[in-house]
Amino acid sequence: MDRQKSFENEGPILYLVPTPIGNLQEMTPRALDVLRQADAIAAEDTRNTQKLLNAYDIHKPLFSHYEHNQDTSIPKIISKLKDGQTIAVVSDAGYPLISDPGQGLVRAVLDAGYPVVSVSGANAALNALVASGLSARHYLFYGFLDHKSSKRRKELETLAAFPYTMIFYEAPHRIHDTLVDLLEVLGDRQICLARELTKMHEEYLRGSVSEIIAASEGLKGEMVIVADGSHEKQAPDVEQMVEEVRCLQETMRMKAAVKQVAERYGYSKNVLYQEVLKRK
User: Is domain 124-227 given the CATH code 3.30.950.10 in the classification?
Assistant: First the structure.
């Protein structure tokens, strides 16, 4: 077991620092402090990060860390930690690792015995979710669907019966095709399309999938789709109910166990009783 007390560590740390998704004013005071105190900053794109640092008058060594150079950048980061340096990792926008590669870095740093600390900040998925008008009680963040329609549809088919709100990211040049696939696979359910979040042209389009498709032509900016979950009641899994009855039979009579399980699932206790007998 690994137990990390983030604020009791006096040695080198790897910080995961979220950056603004559009509005520079959403850089938090703590995130700025971490960047100012870090010995070096690992960035997805050093040019974009340099603009952010210039805006806040932060002067720190920058080096590149992204999907296609991880074989060299991860050892470089671990080497710096071994030298006692604290490293901040940033992506172009939002949280590092969210719809960006990076889990390999976190795992490697933890395996090397160094703490990894995340800093709070901007997140497009949560921004879109809480303002969508759809349920935020339970939700699934899926990220990007496949860019090929055939594979995208297969992904959506696995989610068709999912009962909770779902969040997807999408690029502007694919948004229309993705919405068409969503309509054909998930049906004309309620969604919210949020674009250009925190920027001057921020916009939320709320309505049915077909309504949003009609308004999606020519839209620009990074997109977040928030889709309502399925409201179709799923048939109970009989095998699962039978197994639950068997477990309850260790402490109660079979009829009582059948009644309890059937009531929980809204299932006929007589039918369930026969199913249990069949499987004895």
Answer: yes
For each of the chain's 280 residues, which pLDDT tens digit applies?
888 989 988 899 999 999 999 999 999 999 999 999 999 999 999 999 999 999 999 999 999 998 889 999 999 999 999 999 999 999 999 998 887 767 889 999 999 999 999 999 999 999 999 999 999 999 999 999 999 999 999 999 999 989 999 999 999 999 999 999 999 999 999 999 999 999 999 999 999 999 999 999 889 999 999 999 998 776 678 888 899 999 898 888 999 999 999 888 878 888 898 889 988 7
- CATH 3.40.1010.10 maps onto the chain at 6-118
Q: Which helix (H) or strand (E) holds 36?
A: helix 29-37
Domain 6-118 has CATH 3.40.50.300: no
Enumerate the CATH 3.30.950.10 domain ranges in the chain, comma separated. 124-227
